[in-house]
């Protein structure tokens, strides 16, 4: 892999590392449908020109570098799995893992398939202002269902003495990040992106839509399926 300009110091924990603790993350995996990727590639190219110091989420390659090759941009940036967080990423102890996973599985055993529509460009900053994110938010279709799932995760967290999610959840997938708090830059960029998107889309109903089909719980490097809806 020759994607240069790998971000330095990009992995910043939002909680202190404690010996014997594992990072816990509960989320809905999201894969961007093929038919939406071409358009999204154009939009991300525009984003890179507006905010030059953006990096691809999790891949940690500079967006400006990826923009030099459209196939690479589409594959590295958009061909991966994104996450809608259902709970805070927190540290848990090894003895809590089994009970937490079992309780989540029991809670989520009767989930139904539903549509999620990522219809609004937004920016977010992590709790300790070490990173800013350019994201697509769910504000309508899928919001009631995701909000309910967040409350269910909260109940399990509470029973394990873990901090609950933000009071007014705003479900989203993050596509790119920048170091530090650059919210003013990103706020301006999201306005420009929306204008640009409207200019390249012939139909207003061209929003990114995905089916909810599973919930995953990641503990350290291990991934547990919490629920999976068959096709």
Automatic annotation (TrEMBL):
<dbReference type="GO" id="GO:0016829">
    <property type="term" value="F:lyase activity"/>
</dbReference>
<protein>
    <recommendedName>
        <fullName>U6 snRNA phosphodiesterase</fullName>
        <ecNumber>3.1.4.-</ecNumber>
    </recommendedName>
</protein>
<dbReference type="Pfam" id="PF09749">
    <property type="entry name" value="HVSL"/>
</dbReference>
<keyword id="KW-0540">Nuclease</keyword>
<dbReference type="GO" id="GO:0034477">
    <property type="term" value="P:U6 snRNA 3'-end processing"/>
</dbReference>
<keyword id="KW-0378">Hydrolase</keyword>
<dbReference type="InterPro" id="IPR027521">
    <property type="entry name" value="Usb1"/>
</dbReference>
<keyword id="KW-0539">Nucleus</keyword>
<comment type="similarity">
    <text>Belongs to the 2H phosphoesterase superfamily. USB1 family.</text>
</comment>
<feature type="active site" description="Proton donor/acceptor">
    <location>
        <position position="83"/>
    </location>
</feature>
<keyword id="KW-0456">Lyase</keyword>
<comment type="function">
    <text>Phosphodiesterase responsible for the U6 snRNA 3' end processing. Acts as an exoribonuclease (RNase) responsible for trimming the poly(U) tract of the last nucleotides in the pre-U6 snRNA molecule, leading to the formation of mature U6 snRNA.</text>
</comment>
<feature type="active site" description="Proton donor/acceptor">
    <location>
        <position position="172"/>
    </location>
</feature>
<dbReference type="GO" id="GO:0005634">
    <property type="term" value="C:nucleus"/>
</dbReference>
<dbReference type="GO" id="GO:1990838">
    <property type="term" value="F:poly(U)-specific exoribonuclease activity, producing 3' uridine cyclic phosphate ends"/>
</dbReference>
């Amino acid at each position: 892999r020759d994607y240069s300009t790998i971000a330095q110091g990009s992995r910043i924990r939002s909680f202190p590392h404690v010996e014997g603790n594992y990072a816990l993350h509960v989320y809905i995996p999201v894969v961007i449908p093929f038919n939406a990727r071409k358009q999204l590639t154009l939009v991300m190219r525009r984003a890179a020109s507006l905010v030059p110091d953006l990096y691809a989420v999790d891949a940690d390659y500079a967006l400006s570098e990826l923009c030099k090759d459209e196939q690479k941009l589409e594959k590295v940036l958009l061909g991966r799995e994104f996450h809608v967080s259902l709970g805070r990423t927190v540290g848990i102890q090894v003895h809590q893992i089994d009970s937490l996973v079992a309780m989540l599985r029991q809670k989520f055993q009767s989930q139904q398939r539903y549509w999620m529509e990522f219809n609004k460009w937004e920016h977010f900053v992590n709790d300790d202002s070490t990173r800013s994110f350019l994201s697509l938010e769910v504000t309508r279709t899928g919001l009631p269902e995701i909000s309910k799932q967040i409350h269910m995760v909260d109940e399990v967290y509470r029973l394990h003495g873990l901090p609950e999610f933000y009071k007014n959840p705003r479900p989203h997938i993050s596509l790119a990040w920048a170091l530090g708090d650059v919210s003013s830059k990103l706020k301006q960029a999201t306005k420009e992106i929306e204008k640009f998107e409207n200019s390249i889309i012939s139909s207003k109903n061209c929003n990114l839509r995905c089916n909810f089909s599973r919930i995953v719980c990641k503990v350290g490097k291990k991934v547990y399926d919490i629920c999976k809806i068959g096709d």
